[in-house]
Amino acid sequence: MSDLTDCVITPRVATEGFDPVGVGVHRASTILFADAAAYASRGERGDKGYSYGLYGTPTTRTLEEKLSRLEQAARTFLVPSGQAANALAVMPFLKSGQHILLADTVYPPMRDFALGDLARLGVSVDFFDPTDLGDLQRKMRSDTRIVWCESPGSTTMEVMDIPAAVEIAHRSGALLGVDNTWATPLNLKPLTLGADLVTEALTKYVAGHSDVLMGSISVRDPEFAPPIKAMISHMGIGASPDDASLVLRGLETLGVRLRHSEAVARRFAARLVEHPMVDQVLFPALPGAPGHEFFKRDFLGASGVFTLTFSESIAPHVWSALDALRLFAIGASWGGTRSLAAPMPVRASRSATQWTGPDITLRLSIGLEEETELWEDLERFLGALEEYSAGSDAAQ
Ligand SMILES: *Cc1c(COP(=O)(O)O)cnc(C)c1O
Questions:
Q1: Which domains does the chain have, with CATH numbers?
Q2: CA of 78 to the centre of ligand 1 (A)
Q3: pLDDT tens for residues 117-162?
Q4: Residue with the nearest Cα to atom 3 of ligand 1?
Q5: pTM of the shown model
Q6: Cα–Cα dist 175/168, whole Å
Q7: Ligand 1 nearest-atom number relative to CA 83
Q8: Which ligand 1 atom minimizes the distance to the CA of 332?
Q9: Nearest alpha carbon, ligand 1 atom 5
């Protein structure tokens, strides 16, 4: 062969005996077929076969398989972000004239997707109070197709009685889905509580290093898989094997990272409850938190994300006091190695419930820095908050 041809044709070296711990990054659009007959019959290769890079590679399939085990799912699909997972979990099951009910506390972009895109396509959209399943029951209709939950709720952290919500949804023939990003499959397995669909923003704890975006959709029953698979491939959505490889690496240490963040978060939350600058600590692991009884019954642990609220006189100073932080970085997303603080408004993303407190809360994500130094950093913030508040009292 000429050099030009040898540059293009890749020799296959032996792979027998090469048995690494991790899975390789298999990049491909084209998959080669041994002969014309194999190409002609590629459609018969089934779910486990390979026909085109978009429909899966050994790297992405390995991650899907790992997640299916953790979620106890019949099947898992990877998509390029957590929000893509939420949208693509509900979209295949809805058509014009049907109805979706969402918990009032869902991830705000999911709320926007429902009110914007689903409504435009003729789906009616309603929200229910996740702490009052009577409200869910009253809002169920004969054409309700999906009940979409997130537990604990975004920012305000209310834990839902998922098994009871499942019963209400199933009685009317609706499917129930849960965005499980806060808990991860190590702390809650919604499919074992009867949920039909579960999504994870793998971007957060599972990938764990704030450098990759990915989402997963897992289904309880194999019959829910084909509509999702069809929609994902019709829309041309696939997950990058390079990104899947990063998520696979992150997943190996998820257990120890999560347990560490949980332990530190529990200690910090207990101290912050007592702190005069803090009004409430919204953290499902604290006794008295909304849905704490369901947290104790259903969850295997907590994660390291919780929210602080402040009284009317202190809240206006939160923005300025944040600049006192030296270790906590200011940023959205969470679940990485770096501790984060993010000021979060609530009111604009509620309609079935009312947020009556000051419309600024502070979401903290506990990372892997040394605990004492992290606490000193929080004390710096709280000290600054006290000074700013005292300053404005004096000025009045
Ligand atoms: C971050 C987040 C998402 C979205 O994940 P992306 O990968 O950033 O799109 C979805 N749900 C919850 C609860 C989240 O916190």
A1: 36-252 (3.40.640.10), 254-395 (3.90.1150.10)
A2: 14
A3: 999 999 999 999 999 999 999 999 999 999 999 999 999 999 999 9
A4: 82
A5: 0.97
A6: 10
A7: 9
A8: 1
A9: 82
